[in-house]
Amino acid sequence: MYYLMLVGLTGDANYGQYNRVGEKFLYFSTKQMNWFKAHSICRTMNGNLASIDNERDWKSISDYLTNNFDNENMWWISANDLDSEGNFDFATTGKSVDYTNWFPEQPDNHGGNEDCVHIHRRNFEAYGMNDYECTGLSYFICELEREPDYELESNIQRYLANDRKRERQRELKHKQERQAKLMDCKNKFLHELEKLLNFFRNI
Q1: pTM summary value
Q2: What totals of helices (H) and strands (E) does the chain contain, helices first?
Q3: CA 57 vs CA 22, 61, 71, 74, 134: distances in Å
Q4: For position 6, what pLDDT does the model report?
Q5: In terms of Cα–Cα distance, which of 26, 1, 38 is closest to 143?
Q6: How many CA atoms lie within 13 A of 157 on its CB side?
Q7: 17-144 adopts what CATH topology?
Q8: Which of 22, 33, 42, 180 is deepest in the core (most CB within 10 A)?
């Protein structure tokens, strides 16, 4: 439900809208920028350069690019090794990049200054990751920054608390009904036993 409320949310009026792609809301630029400028623009749009967290993200994004954009376009994402050469993390979260889909022999830090990551296609083949000069030009992908929905979380917790309360009430009712049935059976047994004893007394 929370995701649906965000569909079509507009960022900076000069750059357009986010689109639902897989599990994320993404904006695909129409202009090329260096990595730093792209990062800054995403921030003005209530977002960040996109992160690719797993194979599902990779497939969703690469499929979307294949179906909607020129095959020669290159796209900045958040991953970089600006802090420590060879150790790639996401600028948006500081977390290490766990999922990768590098082209063969990449990353190679060609020229000693390729510290940012973009994705593109080589010779119309499948998309892959490549390290590139951060000052170079690429299109870029922004990911909508989703703040925690505290009201929704509160409603969920309240519902769960009420559900637990209802479950306890159902268990108590079931226990009371079971006890009532046992008591009824006991009373019937005692009644039949009394009848039997009276029968033998009268013999």
Answers
A1: 0.65
A2: 4, 8
A3: 7, 6, 19, 17, 23
A4: 37
A5: 26
A6: 6
A7: Mannose-Binding Protein A; Chain A (3.10.100)
A8: 42
Report the 10 Å Cβ neighbour count for 67. 7
Instruction: With H, G, I as helix, E, B as strand and everything else as coil, classify residue 18.
Output: coil
Task: Please state the domain extents for the chain.
Answer: 17-144, 150-202
Reported as a single tens digit per residue, the pLDDT across 167-201 is 888 888 888 888 888 888 888 888 888 888 887 77
pLDDT tens string 70-124? 778 999 999 999 988 989 988 877 789 999 999 999 999 988 999 999 999 877 6
Pair of tokens at residue 70: 């020129």
Residues 111-149: pLDDT tens digits? Answer: 899 999 999 987 767 899 999 999 999 999 999 986 544
